[in-house]
Amino acid sequence: MKPDRNTPCPCGSTLKTKKCCHKGHRWLKEPTILTSRQPKSGYQHSRCYANTLNDCDSQITREHYLSNNLLADFEENNTVKIFGLPWQEKQSYDLLSRKSMVSKILCKHHNESLSPFDVEIAYFYRAIVEFDEDFNSEQPSTDFKIIAGENLERWMLKTVCAFIASQQFHRNGEKSKLELKSIYNEILYEGRPFPSGWGLYFDMEGNKKTQKYRSFSFVPFEANGELKGISFYIANFKFNFLLGEPDAPDYWGIYHPSSIVFKQGEIKKELLITWRDDNYHKSTILFNRIGTKQGEPANWEEWMKK
């Protein structure tokens, strides 16, 4: 059931639905599309990975490889369980503090500009958690939330840039220096759209069972010394993010998913992912909730020995 137009908008804003994301007969959460400030500062900070845009501040800041908001939601006992990061040993995970996952890679202006994407990924993750927690309550209820697909994609690109700039990618035990292409900054900061076929794919992993879990994984894939994409496991749901147009798109999953529904009995909870254009998958991705399970997800067995 969709919310009434006079109730708070399900995108998380404080506005009423009719003045926010309900556009006549269509739901649309307007994405954050950054553009260059005018006039530009003309300054290039040597440690800011966006310095090619000639619009830096003089102050360098600490940027989390992953969003601080997201890490806060993953955190338990002041640590975050992380596996699959580029520098970690295979089949292992680490318990890391949030403050250990930072690097001085952005000036103040370029760091603060990306905040809307951090907010979006945190809202996305919390929606999944809240849906699951309510299913465990005595009287679960129907729910409906909205996120902007373009913001989610740009958060993924922001995360990729942070790992490249801080040289966190490793190959055969050594740091791998990958190119931070100018197009990445143009997409993040100057409103350039993603090229055809780039971006977000939702991977159903052969319709296997998925266990929601408070964790994060980041699995890069390279070819000929070039980064081609990354698999993100967010709460153990798999999203492939591609930095090129694939030869076989279906292999990577559903491109630009528009709706993920979690269902248990007659109760449905929908996470609507809106896109500005019509280049999105119009069918619903449905997860039937069959129960609860304690401990680490079964698919972690191929990763971890600890």
Characterise this structure.
The protein has 306 residues and is α+β, with helices and mostly antiparallel strands. It has one domain. Helix content is 21%, strand content 26%. A hairpin with a 2-residue loop joins strand 12 and strand 13. Helix 1 packs parallel to helix 3 and helix 3 (115-135) packs across helix 4 (149-165). The mean pLDDT is 85. It comes from Fulvivirga marina.
Q: Could you give a quick summary of the protein structure above?
A:
The chain has helices at residues 68-74, 108-113, 115-135, 149-165, 182-189, 249-252; strands at residues 22-23, 26-27, 60-64, 80-83, 93-96, 102-107, 143-148, 170-171, 174-175, 199-202, 216-223, 226-234, 237-242, 254-255, 259-264, 267-274, 285-288. With 306 residues, it is α+β, with helices and mostly antiparallel strands.
Summarize this structure as a short list of keywords or feature phrases.
single chain; 306 residues; alpha+beta; seven-stranded mixed beta sheet; 6 helices; 17 strands; 21% helix; SEC-C domain-containing protein
